[in-house]
Design goal:
The chain is an alpha/beta fold and about 450 residues long. It has helices spanning about 45, 55-60, 70-75, 90-95, 115-130, 140-155, 165-170, 170-180, 195-200, 210-220, 235-255, 270-285, 300-305, 350-355, 365-380, 390-405, 425-430, 440-450, and strands spanning about 5-10, 20, 65-70, 85, 100-105, 135-140, 155-165, 185, 225-230, 260-265, 290-295, 305-310, 320-325, 360-365, 410-415. Helix 6 links the parallel strand 6 and strand 7. The structure holds pyridoxal-5'-phosphate.
Length: about 450
Amino acid sequence: MSNRTKRFMLSEEEIPHYWYNIQADMINKPMPLLHPGTKQPLKPEDLYPIFAKELSRQELNQKDAWIEIPEEVRELYKNYRCTPLVRAYGLEKELGTPAHIYFKNESVSPVGSHKLNSAIAQAYYCKKEGVTNITTETGAGQWGAALSYAAKAFGLELAVYMVKISYEQKPYRRSIMQTFGAQVTASPSMSTRAGKDILTAHPNYQGSLGTAISEAIELATTTPNCKYTLGSVLSHVTLHQTVIGLEAEKQMQMTGEYPDMVIGCFGGGSNFGGISFPFMRHNILEGKKTRFIAAEPASCPKLTRGKFQYDFGDEAGYTPLLPMFTLGHNFAPANIHAGGLRYHGAGVIVSQLLKDGLMEAVDIEQLDSFEAGCLFAQTEGIIPAPESCHAIAAAIQEANKCKESGEEKVILFNLSGHGLIDMVSYDKYLSGDLVNYSLSDEDIADNLEKIGDLV
Ligand SMILES: *Cc1c(COP(=O)(O)O)cnc(C)c1O
């Protein structure tokens, strides 16, 4: 008992030198992204007006399984990587489960979440091609905080559109972004056409990621030498996040075990894909049987109850058309406290994998997520982000199934962030002010009907 290892770490040299691009190994590749005007398959050049060129090429790369991590990016990774892989002995004991539960702790990054893994890469590629200004959107503020730090590290000016409800619920994330030197605007704002349109139609609109994305893209495409960046959903974002799973793969080797299940919470898919894809590679190439489980909020259930179709990534329809599981780009999610999971669609890679049965999805009610988060905090000493609580709840469900069946399964989940700046949400939960939000099948069908077939 006393000699058991709890944390598994890697040396600096063992931090990955390559990201893993699962598109190269997928048997059914994701369907093409379509140009919103011509409806023709997108070429990298079509994305250059919005994104840095190298990121545009990564987005559509279905050939190269390994993409080298630039040395400048790896240097910044070394400030906080590798992140620990931890055996959750405290949680196991509390649950009385025979399962072995491990978590990868991405909350140790300087900004408190996994988002920095892609923020550093995106800021680097923008700087490298001579871009001076970047824009983005942020929900709960985790992505905005990560990008603010990364932009400063590479000397870029950053403008962030922050979803209004989060701007008000999470004022300290705004302060963090401003401390790093970013300009932050509540979205919808009157500073863009997309913002004005929605505010005049719905004056009390509390904002959504979809609207904030429209505003940030509009600013980028109307400002010289300015590019847009995105914190989730897109394939290049998930590519950068595979550093999580590649490290975890080496760390799991140190434990002498291999995961039977890999679990991640799900907003657009970047932390889930980041921890899963390096392990899924072995399912695809060597026939391993690991299960991959995405945990999404019951109030925003695109994977479990959405429809697979072409849809826009944003509210105004500025993005390419993406083949994905979606609730409709006009979907206004309930004001749950896991702001980072309030997005209508899923990335194209995970959408294809789900369609092909290579992964599963579960939905978690808001109250269950916080209950799981509190149990984790009390047994492991880390207060998880409200988003991460969804992964914990799914891991606990699986560990409880092992208790019933007596199976000693190995469960790995990603702790995508800590919740120390989300204590207002915990306060509300503890004082009984949080509720579950139910969504009827009719609501979902009506919403999808409104957008219709876009292709
Ligand atoms: C943004 C965020 C998420 C959701 O985004 P994904 O791209 O699905 O990973 C999850 N957890 C935390 C802590 C986040 O900040």
